[in-house]
Amino acid sequence: MFGRSRPAPTMVTPDQALPGRDTPLPVPAAHFVLGTPLSPPWPEGHALTVLGMGCFWGAERIYWQLPGVHTTFAGYAGGSTPNPTYPEVCSGRTGHAEVVAVVHDPEVVSFVDLLVPFWENHDPTQVMRQGNDVGTQYRSIILTTDDEQQVLARESRAHYQQRLAAEGYGSIATEIAPLQGLYHAEAEHQQYLAKVPGGYCNHGFCQVAYAGG
Known about the structure:
Layout: E1 47-53, H1 56-64, E2 69-77, H2 86-90, E3 97-104, H3 111-120, E4 129-130, E5 133-134, E6 140-144, H4 147-166, E7 175-178, E8 182-184, H5 192-195
Helix pairs in contact: 3-4
C-alpha cells in the first residue's frame, strides 16, 4: 500500500562497494519476445530510458509490450560495482538498483510517455522497497541520459506528486540521477515473465492515475 513505512535499508558508499569485474555477464543475442538485440548499437534516432521500480521482471514486461519500443533488458544501475551479479546486487553491497532499460523510438513513444506506466505501476512513496521486496536494489529511480531527460523527469515527478497529494497519499521518494553505468543482468532474468508466465510479479496495479481531474 502507498505510504506504508518501515526502516529503510542503508545505501553502500562507493568505497565500501564490492569490486565487481571487468567482463560483462553473458546475455542472449536477441530479445526472447521481440527478437531484437539486447546490446548496442541501437537503431539511429532511438533513445534509451532507464527505470527502477522494484523487481525488474514485472517492470520489463510492462515495457516490451508498448508501441515504439525496440528492445528492453533487465539490468543493474545506479551503483558503483562494475558488472555485478544478482547475488551481489541483492547483498546491498553494490549500490545498484534493479532496472529495466528501454530502447525506443521517441517519435512513437516519448520519454514522458514511458514515465506514465512507471508512476502508475509501482508505489513511488516507498523507500528502498516495493511491497515485501525490501532492499536498496528495489528503490524507485529514474536514471537520465541527458539534461532534457533530467528536466522532464523532475517535471513529471512534480506532476505525479500533485496527483498523489490530491488523493491523500504521501511524498514521492523516487530518485532522479544521471545514468553513470548500466549493466545487463544475467541471462535467466532477461524477459523472465515471458519464459515463466506464472512467475513472481509485483506490478500492474494503478491506485492513482497519472492524468485526470
